[in-house]
Amino acid sequence: MIKNFRTLTSWGIAVAAAATATIGATTGGPPNPSPADPQARPTAGQGKETQTEPRTTERRRIASSVLDRDFKFTLTALRSQTDPLAASVRLQVFTFKDGAWRESDRALVGKADSWFWFPLTGRHAVCEFSTSVTEPAPVAVSMLITPSIGCSPTENFRIDNGQIVPA
């Protein structure tokens, strides 16, 4: 037995690991589950979804204004497809025709992916959103950049015959 003691101490790690596995199995613990689906735990770069499927753009309406039955305006945050922290803001104009609101035009407020998603979709994201029914209908938009930076400069648009024109 002393002869085998030196051999066992040189294999101590293997013996201890085997003993741990045996102790866990004999004390009534749950057996280690094997995944039923080979893709249940995807590794980096692999998964159930193919990489060619297009992702849907996450969007959130952040403001809306209805002026009688002339115009309806919406500001929508669109999460970037390439950067999960970036977003774009879309201004849409709807006109009421044939008993329903129909989109007449849309434009980006600022540049594409130039806003931060979380401040834009959080509380107090809209600093200014003013609309008027006068012709041409003016629209002013200012959004929160970040709480520490504050609001963006106001971007002005006008709606001329249902079309958005930068002012």
Walk me through the structure:
There is one protein chain. Helix content is 17%, strand content 42%. It has helices at residues 2-10, 12-26, 117-121; strands at residues 59-67, 71-79, 86-97, 100-109, 115-116, 126-131, 137-146, 150-151, 155-160, 163-166. Strands 1, 2, 3, 4 and 5 form a 5-stranded antiparallel β-sheet that branches. It is globular, with a radius of gyration of 30 Å.
List the topology elements.
Layout: H1 2-10, H2 12-26, E1 59-67, E2 71-79, E3 86-97, E4 100-109, E5 115-116, H3 117-121, E6 126-131, E7 137-146, E8 150-151, E9 155-160, E10 163-166
Antiparallel strand pairs: 1-2, 2-3, 3-4, 3-5, 6-7, 7-8, 7-9, 9-10
Uncertain ranges: 5-27
Mean pLDDT: 78
Strand percentage lies at: 35-45%
How would you describe the shape? globular
Helix content: 10-25%
Largest sheet report: 5 strands, antiparallel
The topology string of helices and strands comes to: HHEEEEEHEEEEE
**Number of continuous helical runs:** 3
Total strands: 10
Radius of gyration: 30 Å
**Which secondary-structure class do the elements indicate?**
alpha+beta
Terminal residue distance: 94 Å
Index terms:
alpha+beta, 5-stranded antiparallel sheet
Nutshell version of this structure?
The chain is 17% helix and 42% strand.
